[in-house]
Specification:
By secondary structure, the chain is an alpha+beta fold. The protein has one domain (5-215). It has three helices and ten strands, in the order αααββββββββββ. It has helices at residues 5-16, 22-29, 37-53, and strands at 79-85, 90-96, 102-106, 112-113, 118-123, 126-140, 145-160, 163-176, 183-194, 207-215. The protein has a ten-stranded antiparallel β-sheet. A hairpin with a 5-residue loop joins β3 (102-106) and β4. α1 runs antiparallel to α2. 26% of the residues are buried. Residues 9-63, 65-70 and 218-226 have low confidence and may be disordered.
Amino acid sequence: MGITRACLFFLFADYSVRSYNTGGLLICLERRYMKERWFVIVCLSALLAVLNGCEGTHQAPKGNDKIADTNTFPEFLAGRWTGLNGEIGGYWQADFTPEGRISRYVDIWNEILKENQTTDFNMPGGPSHITAGNFYVNYKPSTRMLSMTAELKDIHLMYDQEFVVDANSTDYFNGPVSEDGNTWTAERIEIFNFSDQPQDPNDISPETVIFKKVQPQAAVADSNEKH
């Protein structure tokens, strides 16, 4: 039995206050047993993604590109968006530029990440890092559907000398933007692969993340300060 991403999040949160919750970890382990319907959901999502890619004349993006049914990224989407999930206390943040790119992404690990760059930080066990891959954003004005993909191609977390996590992951967010342009209700699906244990399709559980626009223009952070 492996350890789910949710378990690592709880441990990471505990590390920030120098406290580990063994009981919480045991509860998280039970999340390994997900119903098979999530496998169907993921398959359908992948099929829809392929079909959507065939709708326009754009070619597949080569990192941090937008694919939209117009050539202009809406001005009202540019800015900093912060997302929360009350069930697990998850926190995400993304800066969309006026050109429709992601200049900055904060994952559940609460580290500032930039496309194809490595962010270094310390944990109780020693130096750790996360290397981001490509970031994508896609908006369809006809349906007000906004989607975002963030690839983390190298995750190295030193919880302690005997508990080291090496993995990679991809976050998918997709959902409608409110009429006033200030709320994005996204369904999040994550594919999280440990170095020695690929993601089990039956262990994928979509969750709702509600993003709020907190700044009118995207601010580019040049440091790794926490948020």
